[in-house]
Amino acid sequence: MAEDKYNLKNPAVKRILQEVKEMQSNPSDDFMSLPLEENIFEWQFAIRGPCDTEFEGGIYHGRIQLPAEYPFKPPSFMLLTPNGRFETQTKICLSISNHHPEHWQPSWSVRTALVALIAFMPTNPNGALGSLDYKKDERRALASKSREVAPRFGTPERQNLIDEIHEYMLSKAPPVPQPDVLQSSEEHPTNTEDEAPKETAAAAEELANAGPSETQVTAERIVEEVPEALVPIDNPPVQAVIRAATLEVPPARRPSDQIRHRAAVQSPAAGADDRLFTWAAVGLTIAIVVLLLKKFLKSNGHSPVFMDGS
User: Fold this and answer.
1) Which fold has domain 3-177?
2) Per-domain residue ranges of the chain
3) Per the residue annotation, which of 1, 17, 93, 230 is the catalytic one?
4) Which sequence ranges are marked TM in the entry (predicted)?
5) CB of 43 closer than 8 Å to CB of 34
6) Does position 216 have pLDDT exceeding 90, yes or no?
7) Residue 154 has pLDDT above 70, yes or no
8) Are 57 and 147 in contact (CB under 8 A)?
9) Is the bond leading into 74 cis (omega within 30 degrees of zero)?
10) How distant is the alpha carbon of residue 159 from its chain centre?
11) How confident is the model at residue 299 (pLDDT cuts 50, 70, 90)?
């Protein structure tokens, strides 16, 4: 890079050249970005789609335009590769872009912005400027197509840099997952849904064979264990279990109600026993007091006038 073309005392130029050096000395497998020789304020970049998403295996090119006040003002971003998440050749709205300068921090760099852009790929667009909301299948198809050839954009110098970055990313990016692998992983929850009616029917039979005291407990367990998302309402066995759990069990048969009923029946007898014990204690206390009083009077030579035979 012809550094003599630029004023090295300029804070923006000094910062950009520092970032270029850092990008070249510490490359990443997730992204690559370099400025043009003729204009270090314009960068070409490519990111790879984040793993375990519909973008996995894709290589997405774009353009970064740094302002003259960089790093005190944020850059602008434009995607060049069709991806189904952002429009192409349109400045996208992100918290790290010039659409939201209030969020930008001068300590952030091109590397920081690219890491953030990768993280934004699988998020919900929420109608943001320059965002798209394609279906996952369409995004996977675009991810596969993005590897075939680099996008065409700008002057021959730009195109040469884009092609160079594309070759580098092809050597680092994993292949796009095969459709049969994706289909098998998506069919796994479907098998669970097919097994849910069978398990529910077995639970219904268990509910019918359970004793009176176990019926409500079994019914409540069935309702808790069968996830709502796996229970089709129009399934007859499921409806039978739901009716058994909510309607067919009489409230009087619930264990908690039986305990309260027994307590209510036994409460009069328990109250009578308590009263008898209280009166016996009172009588014993009076007898002890009289006996002590009698001994006291006898020891002082007095005869109790209220007692016979003393």
Assistant:
1) Ubiquitin Conjugating Enzyme (3.10.110)
2) 3-177, 180-252
3) 93
4) 276-293
5) yes
6) no
7) yes
8) yes
9) no
10) 41
11) confident
Share of the chain above pLDDT 70, in %: 65
Q: State how far the Cα of 235 lies from the Cα of 177, in Å rounded to an integer.
A: 36
Strands (E), the chain: 31-35, 42-48, 59-65, 76-79
As a whole number, mean pLDDT of residues 292-298 equals: 83
Phi, psi of 34 (to 5 degrees): -145, 150
User: Are 176 and 140 in contact, with CB atoms under 8 Å apart?
Assistant: yes
Structure tokens at 144: 């596969």
Structure tokens at 108: 């952030």
Beta bridge mates, 60: 47
Q: Which of 279, 208, 276, 288 is nearest to 248 (CA)?
A: 208
265-280 average pLDDT score: 66
**Nearest CA among 58, 53, 27, 32 for reference residue 44:** 32
- pLDDT value for 3: 62
* Mean pLDDT within 268-281: 71
Per-residue pLDDT averaged across 210-215, rounded? 43
The structure tokens 């970032």 sit at 19
For 45-97, give the DSSP string. EEEEPPTTSTTTT-EEEEEEE--TTTTSS--EEEE-S--SSB-BTSB---TTS
| β-pair partners for 79 | 62, 88
> Alpha-carbon distance 202 to 209, whole Å?
11
Alpha helix locations (H) across 211-254?
212-225, 236-246
Of the pLDDT bands very low, low, confident and very high (cuts 50, 70, 90), residue 192 is very low
| Predicted pLDDT of residue 187 | 52
Q: How many helices (H) and strands (E) does the chain have?
A: 8, 4
